[in-house]
Specification:
Structural class: mainly alpha
Number of strands: 0
Distance between the termini: 36 Å
Shape: elongated
Largest sheet: none
Amino acid sequence: MDLRITSTSSPLTGTQMARRATAPQGGPGEVGGFSTAFKDALQAVSRAQDKASDLQQEVQMENPKVSLEETMVAMQKAQVGFQATLHVRNRMVQAYTDIMNMQV
């Protein structure tokens, strides 16, 4: 996932800013932009949670190939990813609420 911000060295005029704001933000093969990046992030969090769950089961079954340390790290990664996703969701809901409450 590429989150780099590109900038120009010259200031933009009003029409250039409007064109830039309405132009698709993705690369040549990328259609979704934010929605694609968000979907990929959600899938990555889901995979991390699945991996942590699988490792937990292996530790509970006393599999000697799975270490407790590896399991704990996977659980923490899944928890951090979930919390970040939850914060993004809350911010998006708040932004939607703010926009809907704006007077035209």
